[in-house]
Amino acid sequence: MELRVLGCSGGIGGANRTTSFLLGQHILIDAGTGVGDLNFSELCAIDHVFLSHAHLDHLACLPMLLDTVLSTRKKPVTVYALPATIAVLRQHLFNWHLWPDFSVIPDPERGILRYHPLDEGSGVTLDGVCVTALPALHTIPAIGFQLDSGDGSLVYSGDTVGCPEFWQAVNAIPCLRGLIIETAFANHESGLAAMARHLCPATLASELQNLATETEVLITHLKPADSGRTLREIRELDSRHSIRPLLQGETIEF
Predict the structure, then answer these.
(1) How far apart are the C-alpha atoms of 2 and 24, rounded to whole Å?
(2) Which of 17, 170, 206, 238 is the most exposed place for a label (fewest CB within 10 A)?
(3) Total Cβ atoms within 10 A of residue 10
């Protein structure tokens, strides 16, 4: 299975795109601004969207995606998320004020948007891949994801700080092929990182001590203003793991 990185930045500007991944041809993992780089045919092929949480950098393109493909689809796009995330979407986004409620468009019986609640630990198998919700700890309810192709797994942390349950779940995964984990801030903004419940290089180093499996660690969600500094600090870490930045546009096979 292939995971295509549509966006992996913590901000916008220039070539930066916020978090979004295309799993195969029909599944999005988060729906940040990187989704906007897909062509029309690719957008029309998306049937499923898994959301880690309800912050805009992870779902900014979801409303426009639904509006763009409305006239082409005969079945709904299903959004998989925590019940708390779905509640935010219903109340604050698809509410007829900020954006139309696509769960009842073109009519209540054939809404293009369908919700599928996920709980931590629950998995959904689609196109031969099992997507399982993993625990995360952020400023709002959030999850990460295990993507299991049957031959191996990738883990995407979502936005999170220290979460023992996350590491317990990760360390139980056989054939872990890679860990995509956020590090949003440089160390000089460690206070802001703690307030926003994001990692910085120092806390990343602490968290990676919990990773029992030898696997590649891929850094995502770097803030553009300090990305160079943050990467330098990550490269200076004394870690037994192979660590590199995730690259927008790359494809990971697992």
Answers:
(1) 6
(2) 238
(3) 25
> Cα–chain-centroid distance for residue 138?
13
- Local confidence band at 145 (pLDDT 50, 70, 90 cut-offs): very high
DSSP helix/strand/coil, 102: helix
Residue 239's pLDDT is: 87
Q: 3: which strand partners?
A: 23, 252
What is the residue type of 44?
C
**Crossing angle of helices 227-235/201-208, nearest 10°?**
40
Residue 16: how many other CB atoms lie within 10 Å: 18
CA separation for the pair 152, 133 (Å, rounded) = 16
Taking every pair of Cα atoms in the chain, the longest distance, rounded to a whole number of angstroms, is: 57
φ, ψ (nearest 5 deg) of residue 148: -115, 115
Q: What token pair was written down for 28?
A: 């999005």
Q: Considering only the top CATH level, what class is 2-253?
A: alpha beta
- Bridge partners (DSSP) listed for residue 252: 3
Beta strand extents in the chain (DSSP E only): 2-7, 20-23, 27-31, 48-50, 77-81, 113-117, 123-126, 129-135, 143-148, 153-156, 176-182, 217-220, 243-245, 251-253
